[in-house]
Amino acid sequence: MLKINSKAFQVLPGEKIDLQKRATLSSPVYKSIAEYQDILKQHISELSTQQQLLYASNQHAVLLIFQAMDAAGKDGVIKHVMSGINPQGCQVFSYQHPSEAELQHDFLWRTTRNLPERGRIGIFNRSYYEEVLIVRVHPEILDSEGLIDQQSKSDNIWINRYRSIADLERHLHINGTRIIKLFLHISKEEQRKRFLQRIDAADKNWKLSYADMKEREFWKDYMYAYQECMSATSTPESPWYIVPADDKENARLIVSRIILDTFIGLDMHYPKSTPKQKREFQAMRKRLIK
Q1: pTM for the whole thing?
Q2: Looking at CB atoms within 10 Å, which of 36, 191, 201, 249 has the fewest?
Q3: What is the residue-wise DSSP string for 249-287?
């Protein structure tokens, strides 16, 4: 089994990114499907243990943010990697077009309502980062957000939004939430193949719409938006990870390793019983063995 180095996929603070030079396909960390399944099973088991520690220690929350182009495999990663954890301690939120009510608030409002509490894992399938990604590619969306005219027309809007996001994430980190931001990096050619699979398989038709095809036309614009966004918002406390995603199985193993390494870095421990609790346990034990 090859060792996965999480830091190899991490975006350094202020790093200038060129996604054209970032691999969408890397050397597989598994030699066969059987080995892939064994590694994933091991990772899931370790994640389950870490989740229990997270809940018991009650000092941290963990927020996973998944961003990617269509068909990059976000749903599959969430399904396979998080399949072994206790669903009572985890919530998944998917964000599409904002509702009328959400548009009456600042751009961070609809996601901050769903942040995980201490002891729990939150998963954002897309996130507040859409506001500097799809909105940057389609700035006409700003017209529906009720912004002051000069603000919405200024290039500074993206710098200001990056700052707002970074400030939010810094605040969350200080207060115990650990954020893991994962960009599943798929090639345009691999997306084409997966779109064709969705067309040809009747049970996958629902996954593809004409709107998805239209967005392919803005591929270069999205790559630019992602580059700028990750360079501006990857920090030591809340880093971005660029995960090669053309190989779905490989991507799942890399993601699960990144998540595991973050959990292990929290150095969590089960709470120690106080002398009073120990006396109470002994009293309970005596009553139970009568």
Answers
A1: 0.93
A2: 201
A3: HHHHHHHHHHHHHHHHHT---PPPPPHHHHHHHHHHHHH
